[in-house]
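ABC transporter substrate-binding protein, pasting as requested.
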Amino acid sequence: MIKLRGIAAFLALLGAAAESHAAGVTIGVVAPQNRPLALLGAQIAAGAGFEIQQSGNTLVAINETCEDNSGAAVADALVNAKVQVAVGFLCSETLEGALPKLKDANIPAITVSVRSRILMEDALKNGWPLFRAAPADGAEAAKVIEVILKDWAADPIALIEDGTIHGRELTEAVRNALEQNGLKPVFTDTYRPGQEQQIALVRRLKRAGATRVFIGGDRNDIAVIARDAKAENIQLSILGGDAMRAANQPQPLADGVRAVALPEYALLPESAATADALRAKGVEPEGYVLPSLAAALIAGQAGQAATAAGKPLQEMLLGATFQTPVGTVAFTSAHELSQNPYRLLEWRGNGFFPPAAPTQ
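Structure tokens follow.
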């Protein structure tokens, strides 16, 4: 985990480097610098700052408080610093106030976090220069549905969820998609989360004839269900969502349990060299580090292309494909990622990896 004292020293070096040579593309990095979101902000600043330094561009760090009505001040700071493009933006509150002013200044904003569908709809309607380098709201459900229709359509499927808003909405989206495709689950239920055992639940799944189970719940509940199914000798193929990316405790997850989740980018082959370089600087490539690094890389390359072509930077973001440590990135005309970043992963040993079977 990134330690704030260590990251502060790293960012101080980046700041000194930025002061010593104002060159290349001037990129604003908007991220929280104070608690309670300082750790996430440090991840954004470390990843983006590393890339900006490596590319010889100029970094302008802007504090993000994530408070209501704070965005206008962030935009003013970016405009006054004469940045050409800004990355980061952990919070929708910042973007809501900043985007109108960024539009007037022709400064595109690339968020690595905000998923609000309504905000993007407003941005497109008003011509605000927002680009989303994060999953859109609904992308998780879309990938779960794709996986189930591809791999489970011929099997008896159960859908269960934990009663939380996210678990219920995710599972309901899956159920609606199945019904639209002429598939009816053999079992649906809401289970009580946080229980030490779920033997009664897995026995009910068996009586219903379910062999494939999608669970809209958290990691520990799914681990308990998988453990109890194995103890009862009930063969279940279990799939969860992005909530599976959590600490593997108190109940360890059994090998073979699958999840539709964002990958641990540092484990990807295309990230290996960058991850090693970050670790050499004392930065663990976790959380927002690599996505923010990728956003800064995209911003820098688009800025260079815009200068060379004599065109607005926003046009370069729409008209290019970028090779980054988190994979190939391109934006649609709706300023969303052209490819869904969620992937089908399988727990093996101590991490989630692409499944051994060819079902990716």
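Note for the archive: Residues 289-309 form the longest helix (21 residues).
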